[in-house]
Amino acid sequence: MTSGAQGQLVGRVAVLLRxxxxxxxxxxxxxxxxxxxxxxxxxxxxxLATLADEGLVDRHRDNGRWTLGxxxxxxxxxxxxxxxxxxxxxxxxxxxxxxxxxxxxxxARRGDETVxxxxxxxxxxxxxxxxxxxxxxxxxVASAGLAxxxxxxxxxxxxYLSRTDLSTEWGPDHxxxxxxxxxxxxxxxxxxxxxxxIVEGSWGMGAAVFDQRDxxxxxxxxxxxxxxxxxxxxxxxxxSLLNQAHRLTQxxxxxxxxxx
Length: 260
Description:
ArsR-like_HTH; alpha+beta; 2 domains; single chain; 8 strands; 18% strand; Beta-Lactamase; 10 helices; two-stranded antiparallel sheet; 6-stranded antiparallel β-sheet; Arc Repressor Mutant, subunit A; globular
């Protein structure tokens, strides 16, 4: 197998595993995975069968749906010491949810996406259910991804938006000019605002969390119904987000660095 073919195979496996993870814990059918990944159904089935042999995915006997397998749990446990910050962020998320009354989330950047790692439910009884642990969005979509994108260097932002047309999947509000305007507003305020651009009536706000190299690697965000994000509340919500994001940044910078 040539290096190009090997790279294509690895890429397909990675795409499949991410697609399966997006449907945890209920699982997903082979046909749905084929549609979501734009791969032929026989190819998807063949790859999944091989992954199942290695313990990387499981197939439910009762409904034929695929879920992540036990070997991924073991591998993830070993990697957690280096990458997992959910435990460190627990108190931060709880305090953010308590202060705002909204559900608070921790997301991490993974390449051109963000993935939600943890959630703390707020006290307000009406909630937005756009976010959940494991869901992924492209940078610039949802408040966490917009917060992270806005704090990247201009050259990185331009490179990303030059190769990515978010409006194709996410609608005209995610055209380049509109993203640029929201980046400018985020930089000015320090926090991002998603005014129901993904789901009608569901608002979100986000603030970047930085690593020891001052790179925006994670984000805190809050989501809720539109009435909870009025003009007279947003400034206070933004201050809470920025305070807790700074707190988590400092906690992370004090954390001992693992040696490669």
